[in-house]
Amino acid sequence: MGISETKWKGSGSREVGQGYRIWWSGGEIGRRNGVAIVMDKKMTSRVMKVDVVSERIIKVTVRMEGEIMDIIQVYAPQTGCTDDEKREFEEDLERQVKEERTIIIGDFNAQV
Prior knowledge:
Order of helices and strands: EEEEHEEEHE
Strand order of the largest sheet: 1-4-3-2
Helix content: 10-25%
Distance between the termini: 20 Å
Shape: globular
Number of helices: 2
Number of strands: 8
Mean pLDDT: 91
C-alpha cells in the first residue's frame, strides 16, 4: 500500500503491528508532503532495498518469483508549487525508472 502526504519528518522504517512494516520519507523542515509504503510480513521478506529519493519519492526493490521489481510511491507537487519544484520532482522520478519491471503508485495531482 502506498501513502501520500504523510506529513512525517525525516525518513525511516518500523513495524506497525501484525507483521506490517512501513517505510517513509518526509521533509526535514516543517510537516509537509511525505510518502510511505506499507507491506505485510510476506512482502517485507522479499524487500531487497529501499531508496529514499526525496520527500516526494520512495522506491522499494523486491524479489517476486525470481524477478526483481521496483515499486515507487510518489506525491507530485501541486498547484501553488514552483515550476522548479515540479521540474525537480519529474527529474527525480525519471532517474528512478530504469527497469521495465517498475510499478509507480501515488498521487500525481493531475500531472501525467
